[in-house]
Known about the structure:
By secondary structure, the protein is mainly beta. It contains no helices and 27 strands. The strands form seven sheets. A four-stranded antiparallel beta sheet has the order 1-2-3-4, with no helix packed on it. A four-stranded antiparallel beta sheet has the order 5-6-7-8, with no helix packed on it. The model has no long low-confidence stretch (mean pLDDT 92).
Amino acid sequence: MRTTYGACGVETRRGAADDGRRATALVVEYEMDEKRGARVGGARAYALERGKGNGDEVTVTELGRCGSGTETMNGIGAIFEARWSPRRDDAERCAFAGADGYVTVARVRETESGGGVEFSELGRAHVGGEGLGMATCLDWRADGAMCASAADGSFRIMRDDSGAIQVVETVENAHDLEMWAVAFDLSREDVVYTGADDCALKAWDLRDVSRPQMVNRKTHGAGVTCVAPSPRDEHIIATGSYDDHVRLWDVRRIVSPLSELNVGGGAWRCRWHPRRDALACAAMGGGAVLVDAESNALKLHFTYSEHESIVYGADWVCFGDESEALLTCSFYDKTVKCWTLEDDVK
């Protein structure tokens, strides 16, 4: 599938909203329009459906889009990242981190005629800070709390109450350079992890944000681009970096990683598998890389090299019958691909 602008992120909806043979995913787009001097982009929703026969391929259908060049939410422009709501009773809600510095909450609802979806804006808040003014990453807790990073090295904590987004905490100068990563701890609601171009990984206690709780500045050889807490082990997080490495950490002591692996390119985003200890990594020039993380030891499992450009998005698509696929996207060739592993490499 092709996008209008550079494809830079993938987010698959998890939970009970879709039936066992169907899943929904968002792909976000970003591009600098040199003629207009403006950042343009948007988001697309796709349906992914597994055939009824054993081994049948996954059918991908575009359901709708919003942003630049459309009549829906056309003011949102370029988007860096999307997140579906973690609330199981509100699976139509999603949020976007935009290059305009805003976090926007939207609803993705099936059209009355069926066969497609419509995007509608519910609320937005400015979180971009100074300098480039961009919101670069976001995360969302089931209790309605949100966090977002900004290109100026700051981050913000927000509350999403029925679409009215309120900024409740701003941490200025959290990092010395552009900040690309922010994530909530999955079991300790007062803990947030951040990463940035200053090569620092930091853990923050939201009860006192005057200084970070823990800092590692020595391990990453380049900017920290993502932080991904494990959904199965409350003490484990994964990080990605421009230094081409994915690392596993025990958050009780982030002096040195438990394991690290060179994935062949900058590890822009890493997504944990919903059912087992494995990571899908968007490794930029290294393609899309699947990594085993059993027993907290990283091992290269498979590299998907069919993209002709930098891979910025990768996520798992898991169906109710235990089958799965991968959805990945690449930037300069504006391409989205859905693929599966053959049995002999699973």
